[in-house]
Amino acid sequence: METLKHYRICPLCEACCGLEIRTQGEKVVSIRGAEQDVFSRGYICPKGVSLKDLHEDPDRLRKPLIKRDGEFVEASWDEAFAEIERRLVPIRERHGADALALVIGNPSAHKIGLLAYVPRLVKALGTRNFFSASTLDQMPKQLSSGLMFGHWLSIPVPDIERCDFLLMLGANPMVSNGSLWTVPDYRGKAKAMRERGGRIVVVDPRRTETAAQADEHLAIRPGGDAFLLLGLVHTLFDEGLAKPGRLEEWTKGIAELREAVRPFAPERTAAACGIDAATQRRLARELAAAEHACVYGRLGTCTQRFGTLNSWLVDVLNILTGQLDAPGGAMFPKAAAFAANTAGTSGSGRGVKTARHASRVSGAPEVFGELPITLLAEEIETAGEGQVKALIAIAANPVLSAPNGPRIGRALDGLDFMLSLDIYLNETSRHADVILPGLSPLEDLHFDVAFPQLSYRNHARFSAPVFERPAGMPEEWQTLLRLAALFDPAATSSMPGPEALIDQALRNGPYGLTLEQVKAADGGVDLGALQPRIPELLRTPSGRIELAPTPLLAELPAVEQALAEATDNGLLLIGRRDVRSGNSWMHNLPVLAKGPERCTLLMHPQDAERLGLSNGATARLTAGGTELLAPVELTRDLRPGVVSLPHGWGHDLPGARLGRAAERPGINMNALLDDRLRDPLSGNAVLSGVAVAVEAA
Ligand SMILES: Nc1nc2c(c(=O)[nH]1)N[C@H]1C(S)=C(S)[C@@H](COP(=O)(O)OP(=O)(O)OC[C@H]3O[C@@H](n4cnc5c(=O)[nH]c(N)nc54)[C@H](O)[C@@H]3O)O[C@H]1N2
Ligand SMILES: Nc1nc2c(c(=O)[nH]1)N[C@H]1C(S)=C(S)[C@@H](COP(=O)(O)OP(=O)(O)OC[C@H]3O[C@@H](n4cnc5c(=O)[nH]c(N)nc54)[C@H](O)[C@@H]3O)O[C@H]1N2
Ligand code: SF4
Ligand SMILES: [Mo]
Asked: 4Fe-4S Mo/W bis-MGD-type domain: from which residue to which, for each copy (predicted)?
C-alpha cells in the first residue's frame, strides 16, 4: 500500500512542534519531528508520538452519549441536540442567564475550532459564570501584563537564541516543553546557550531536570518567590544598578516602585524564601552585569498566594536591567494573526479592567471575564437568586485538575443538567447528561491562535487534516455554533469557518499574509527573530509601561505579614510534571502509560527517616480532612521539608471509561488542596506549597 507523508502541528502542548506523519490507508505508520518545520526544526517529544495511540484509542468517544436512567447510551447528533434543547434551554429561560455556567479546559487553547468559537457561545449565553483552567495556571501573568503593558496577552518571552544569562523561576521546560513561552527543543537551545558561554540559574524547590542541566540551582522555599524577587528589585535600587536605559522614557512609576521595595532588603527576606542575602545580592549584580539577560517565571510562580505580584516583579527586573524589549532579553512576539496587540491604535489604549462583576457567593472579582475556578462548586451548591443550575464543560476535567476536585464532582451531581464537550467519558464528563465528542487531532486542521503570541521566534504555520473526518461527525466549531444558536439564533451569522477566519486574520495581520501563502510554504513561514516593539505594542491609557500599578503596590502589606508568618514547620506539598503525561487526560495512551509508576510521593531521605518511611513504602497523606495513600520515592533533589506529587491522576472513579488509565490509576493530588486558597488579585488557585501531613501507612 502507498505510504503518504503528512505535515501536522502537534496540539498537545505549547511547543507546537511540526510533525511528519506517515500513513498507509487508514493506518498511522510513523510519527516523527518534521525536519522542514521552520519553527521546531525536527524536534518531537514522546507525546507527539502518542497521537497515533490517541487516534486509535478504543475509549475515545466517536458518538454523542446521552445518560438514560444513569447509563450512557450512544445517540445521533440530532438526538443529542434534541435532548439539550429539551433540558438545557428551559433552565436558562426559567432561572436566567447566570444559571448556566461554562467551564473551559486547557485543550481549548490548542484548537482554533474551540478557541475562536467559544466567545460566540459565551455571547449567546450571556452568563457571568465563566470559569476556565486559566485560574489554575496563568491568570496572574495575564493580569500583571495587562496592568503593565495594557493587554492580557502582551507577555514577554526569553529571546533564548541571543540571551547569555537566564534566570528561571518555577518552570521546568525540559519536561513541560515550555509555557507562556513557545519554545520547542528547550534542551537544545539551553545547551547552545551554555556552549556560547551563557549561564542559566533555576529557582525551584526541586532540582528539576531543567535545574540539573543549568549552571546553578537555588532551592527556594515553596511560596517564597515574592520575597526573593522583592529582595532582587531592592538590591538593584540599593546598589545603584537600576538602569532601564532606552525604556526610561516609556516607563511610569519608577520613584513609587523604589519607595515600595525599600523595606524588602535581602537581609530581611532571606529566611522566608530560603535564599541567603549574599546570594540574592550576587544574583541581582549578575543580572545587572550581563549583556543580554532575561528573567522568566512560570507556573510555579503563578500558582501561589502572590502569583500576580511575582509575575509583575519578574518583568520589573527585566525593565530595571534594561533587558525588556531588547535582543537577548525578554521580548514581545509579533504574531501574524489574531493578536490584539497588533490591532487598533498603537502606543496606547484602554488598558485592562477587572471587577466589572463579582462572583455571587464569595464576591471574587471578575478578571479577563472569568471567575476563579475554585469557586465553581460553591456557586452550584449555594441556593438563591443566580445559583448555577446547569453547566457546559468544554475540554475540561476540573474533578482532577482543580483543588478539592471531589467537592466539584459532588456539586456536579446536584446540577439540573450538565453537558460535556469531551473526547472521553472521564472523571468529569461522567457527571454529564450529554457528552458531545470532538475529532481526533488527526482529523482536524490546525492553526495556533494563541501560541504565536508567545513564541521564541515569529512564524506562521498551518496544517491540514491527516485523515478525513468520519461521516456525520461535525467539527467542534460547528458543534459550538449549533449550541450557541439554541440560545441566540443570530449567533452563527457572519461567523466564517476556520479557514476563512484564519485567512482574514492573516490578511489583517502585521505581515499581510494569506492562508494560501502559509499553506504553500512547506514547514511554515519563518518571520524572523523577535524585534523590539515598545512603544508600538503598548495599550495602556498612559502610553507608558506602568511600573507601579496601584493594585500591586496595595499587596505589599500582605507580603509584610506573610514575611513575618513564614515558618519551616511541617511539610509543604508541591506538584510536578512528567514527560509522558499531559495534565489529566493522556494516561490512557499505551505509549505514555508504559514504564515505571509515575504517581509517587517524592520525599527527601532526611524527612523520610524522621517519619520512618523508606523507598517504596506507602505513605498516608492528610490535608483538609482528606487522606490518600501513595508510594514513596526518595530523592535528594528536593529541598528538605518539601514533598511532591504529580497532578492529573486518580483514574479509579466509577463510571469513567478509561480502560488503560484505570489499570494504574494513581491518586488525585488535588483532593488534598484547599479550594479556599487563591491569589485574590487574579483569582488563581494556590497549587503549591500547601501544608500536608505525612506518615507511614
Ligand atoms: N495540583 C495541580 N493541579 C493542576 C496543575 C498543577 O500543576 N498542579 N496544573 C494546572 C494547569 S496548568 C492546567 S492548564 C489545568 C488543566 O485543567 P483542565 O483543562 O481541566 O484539564 P486537562 O487535564 O487538560 O483536561 C482536558 C479535558 O479535555 C478533554 N479533551 C482533550 N482533547 C480534547 C478535544 O480535542 N476536544 C474536547 N472537547 N475535549 C478534549 C480531555 O478528555 C479532558 O477531559 O490543570 C491544572 N491543575
Ligand atoms: N509533559 C508535560 N508537559 C506539559 C504538561 C504536562 O502535564 N506534562 N502540562 C502543560 C501545561 S497545561 C502547562 S501550564 C505547562 C507548565 O509548564 P511549567 O511552567 O514549566 O510548569 P511545571 O513543569 O509544572 O514546573 C513548575 C515548577 O515550579 C516548581 N515550583 C513549585 N512551587 C514553587 C515555588 O513556590 N516557587 C518556585 N520558584 N518554583 C516552584 C515546581 O517544582 C516545578 O518544577 O506544562 C505544559 N506541558
Ligand atoms: S513538545 Fe509538545 S508540541 Fe512538541 S511533540 Fe511534544 S507534546 Fe507535541
Ligand atoms: Mo496549563
From this structure: 3-59
Substitution candidate for ligand 3 out of 7, 9, 35, 44 with most atoms within 8 A of CB: 44
**Helix (H), strand (E) at residue 520:** helix 515-520
- Residue whose CB lies within 8 A of the most ligand 3 atoms, among 45, 174, 185, 578, for a mutation test: 45
> Which ligand 3 atom is the nearest neighbour of the CA of 33?
5
Does residue 100 sit in the same domain as residue 144? no
All residues at 6 or more sequence positions from 480 whose CB lies less than 8 Å from its CB, including other chains: 113, 114, 117, 118, 120, 121, 394, 421
Are 174 and 295 members of one domain?
yes
Q: Report residue 308's pLDDT band, with 50, 70 and 90 as the boundaries.
A: very high
What is residue 236's predicted lDDT score, i.e. its pLDDT? Answer: 98
Atom of ligand 2 at shortest range from CA of 211: 44
Range of the domain at 8: 1-49
**For the CA of 396, the nearest ligand:** 1
Q: Express each pLDDT in 67-111 by its tens digit.
A: 999 999 999 999 999 999 999 999 999 999 999 999 999 999 999
pTM, two decimals, is 0.98
H or E, element range at 526: strand 525-529
CATH code of 680's domain: 2.40.40.20
- The answer to whether the CB of 446 is under 6 A from ligand 3 is no
First to last CA, the chain: 57
Total domains, the chain: 4
CA distance 474 to 486: 17
The answer to whether the Cα torsion of 152, 309, 245, 283 is positive or negative is negative
